[in-house]
Amino acid sequence: MSTTNGSIAPGASRTTLAPPATNTTRPRSTGLIPTNNVTTKEGVTVRTRIDPTLTVDDVVRQLCVNLKVTEPSSNFALRDKDTDELVVNENLRKKIKNKANLKLVNSPNIEAAEIVQKLLVRDERTCKMALWSLKKFIREEKFAQEFLSHGGLAELAQIICTEHGNTLAYALEAMHNLMDLDYGWSTLDNTFVFKVVQILSSPNSLINVCRPATAILKKLVEADPMNAPGPLIASSSRAPPVAPPGSVYRYGFQIVFQQMRREKGSLETVVNRLGSADTAMILHSMMLINSLLSHVNDTEWDEFISELERLNVRKAVIRLMSSHNIDDLTSSILDFQANIVRVTYRKKSTLVEPEVEPLHESALEYIWHCSKVQEERDSDGEVLKWQKLGFLSENLVHEFQEVGELGLDCLRNFVADDPDLFSKVISEQLSRPVDRRCPIARASNEIVELLAEHWMIFAPAYSTSTTYQPFFLNFYRVHALATQFFLRMWNESGSAAGDFSRIVALARSQVKVALQRENMKPWHEVEHDFLDCEYRAVRDRQMQELEAEDDLLSKVPVRNLKEKITRESAEFVRQQRIQCLFQGAWFVNGIPTPANGPSRRPNGHWRFIRLDNGLKYLHYVDSAVQFAVRNGLEDLPERIEIAAITQIATGTCASPPNNLRDHLDLSPPSNLTPSPLSFSLLTATEGSLADQIASDQLRWADWTDGLNMLRRDSGHVTSDETAGYIKALTEIGLKIKLLDLSGEKVDIPSGLVAGPPPSNTDFFFSDLI
User: What's in the GO CC field (predicted)?
Assistant: First the structure.
């Protein structure tokens, strides 16, 4: 092979160089068209023709031979000159096809060794420049392995513990990027975790320091042993199982929360930053709170949830819902909403046991103290205490059985809103004849049941809401308003003990009216609907509703059955959505709107995407035309890591104009209109990983909801289609179960059992019969 005329001798190398171009000499033709320009470390640019069948190691070896480099070829690597992306076997063909400008640089092992040496020097300028390079290169697995093998993790952790300002910010970003790997950082100890908590909590920390510090804590929370791939090791004690030695899945909620306890005010700082003027800081804080909520263990559950409630985190999120400049936070806000559904469900499912749980005993003592009522004894000498507040018996475990700890919390909050009013109401009721008294405590519990039914607090794992629910996050205030409504309807209608169920029906009707259009309705209208409506108007409307609705569905056993079928329907739809991801689909590569930041430029008009069986990566291929993609992943050379996706944003990109479809190097116009069938896979730091447009509404719903259900911390769905499917499956299953019973007008037994969800989509309700 000749490096001057480009001729190739038999058996010569398959990487050919044309002579360097100058202003005075025109290179002689080689007869072969160069594929790429390669710039050497000395700044000389040569034109090359690279055989795409070669490995990257072979290409580098032949380049070194042709350029007469004396050092071993193992000391060098190729990078994209424009993006600094490392050229590896998986993307070599893509770089050749796109005629990417390449550069010959130090290999990852040389680069990693040099960066570690620069970190050891501790010179501020040298260290800062090394960290700037490190935070880019550490995402590459080859570089990361070399960096770890040279002891770089310990040096990086030491810098985080000692430096400040931009040097600290770069170090934290590098550590966060390193933690995208599932290995290599398991030696980070509690001292490091505590230092990151301190950095996050310090009022003097720069915003560019707080963002990566918050993201690191989120990574540590998610590195829970229960999230580890593969089998866990059983513990010899009652402690939960642990990950194998060396696994990074050894941290989790408990490790992080213990260190946050040590730094007073750290959780408060995270919640307060939801009011930051920096949208990225809000996003990182929301994601950390969601991770903590998703991974909190039983031991610290009460303490953590109580602390969040004390810090008014719900109020902070409601304020975000009402903002108009936080579209990129939508997914995180819906995740938080879904987490609060799980919290509410758990409270509702937790028995009230005052003899066992001190918090329950304390809440009941507070309620009794505020009532200002004295105990009495009946004719048989039995104590009459809780019945005077409206319970049916003195057995509080039984009285709160259906509403659990949630009912106790609601009653306590109702009392705490105005203790004097509560005392006055109880005194007024006790002054009436027994059969004319409004049972306040029973009414409170019944309102809890109605609200749980309205917001479908049935399942611990799913929320089918696709819109903001600020009134749900205000559960205790809505409960107080509805309880006051119940009391007012009782008084205005002159009700007696036998009318309790009738007033419950009125309350159910009013709850539906007051809480409709929740994502658009102002709070003052909710207050008006509960506090100012007239009894006659409510009764007339309810009578109209009863004409169109059988009261069978309001019976407790039927509501319990509906809860069970809702859970099964949600799980069935989740499996169906993820199955769509396994099958894969073609999408148009969209052009993101400016508001959604930078994205990665595709290599064709179309993209086929498929989820791997391990649920870890989305594999894809870009193409100018659609083609028949084989099963498996052979035709899909590129991939996106699921763990890197922080948000599935919708309505974010537009279809490329016809003049850009075959000319992806042209700049798109700035006035493109986003497609309603578009979605983007966003990260917290890198912008968009993919911008896709579905062919129709069904495919858009399948993929946006499938990806949301797949993500570790997400429990919400995006589309009305998926929420509608879950609702339809529930209603069909319930009606089939009730056909015979309602036809005979027999009582509904409490032991109805719904069958498992169907295993296919052909007859999706057959197993519910």
Answer: plasma membrane
